[in-house]
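> example.struct
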């Protein structure tokens, strides 16, 4: 038999009562584990300090291919939308309800979150520099009429 035999071993679930009570520690550990798996070698630092959340359809390339491209060029991927961590949302279109929720949460937190088309990642890597988000934007506060 190969590898761990039970789901608890595969997921590295907490074994002691104290570990089970400290659920946040478990999830932090799991997220860190996921983030370190299959990370490509960094080719450049184009997307330093950029954390992207992928939402829905991503057009020409799959979100997995875009994630690898982003990480290879110094960026990070947010697996869940987080106002504190997310700097960019990449999608081809965004429904008004989600756009309103994402952007108003960001305004309340005093942050700017760019909602951009996947071409922003592709064109930036082709140009070997981080391009302005403005020509690639999908949604802004003025477009959703808060």
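> example.seq
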């Amino acid at each position: 038999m190969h590898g761990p035999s039970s789901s608890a071993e595969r997921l590295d679930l907490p074994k002691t009562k104290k570990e089970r009570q400290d659920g946040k520690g478990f999830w932090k550990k799991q997220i860190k584990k996921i983030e370190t798996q299959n990370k490509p070698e960094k080719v450049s630092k184009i997307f330093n300090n950029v954390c992207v959340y992928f939402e829905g359809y991503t057009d020409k390339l799959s979100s997995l291919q875009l994630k690898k491209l982003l990480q290879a060029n110094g960026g990070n991927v947010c697996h869940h939308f987080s106002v504190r961590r997310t700097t960019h949302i990449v999608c081809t279109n965004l429904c008004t309800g989600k756009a309103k929720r994402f952007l108003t949460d960001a305004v309340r937190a005093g942050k700017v979150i760019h909602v951009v088309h996947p071409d922003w990642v592709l064109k930036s890597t082709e140009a070997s520099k981080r391009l302005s988000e403005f020509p690639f934007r999908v949604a802004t506060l003025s477009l959703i009429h808060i």
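> remarks
The two ends are 57 Å apart (CA to CA).
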